[in-house]
């Protein structure tokens, strides 16, 4: 991670965010299920915005054959990062910062099906 990206505000790296009600709506479920996704580490987020509401990156939601869903490979990667001692904001910064070896950010690589490459990088962080 370059020094500049290490200092970039998360908002600049992530772009679009979803509140839990927005996440629930995007997934066609209810807010308690969206909270459950956070509790089970399927997604992570931070408190942000004017009213400091908890929000998750919109990039965590993908379109599948069965409709919108949380990026399937995200949870394992989040667990690896957590095991390496990353806080949720640090994990988000890592996921959304371009990596030379991937040629894109880890979250973009996960969305493109590069789970093994991303997990190798995450394991190397530990």
Automatic annotation (TrEMBL):
Domain Rv2175c C-terminal positions: 72-126
| Source domain of life | Bacteria
Q: Which UniProt keywords apply?
A: DNA-binding
Specify one Pfam family.
Rv2175c_C
**Signal peptide range:** none
**Can you name one GO molecular function term for this protein?**
DNA binding
Using the record's annotation, list all stretches that form the DNA-binding protein Rv2175c wHTH domain.
Answer: 16-60
Q: What is this protein called?
A: Rv2175c family DNA-binding protein
User: Which organism was this protein described from?
Assistant: Isoptericola haloaureus
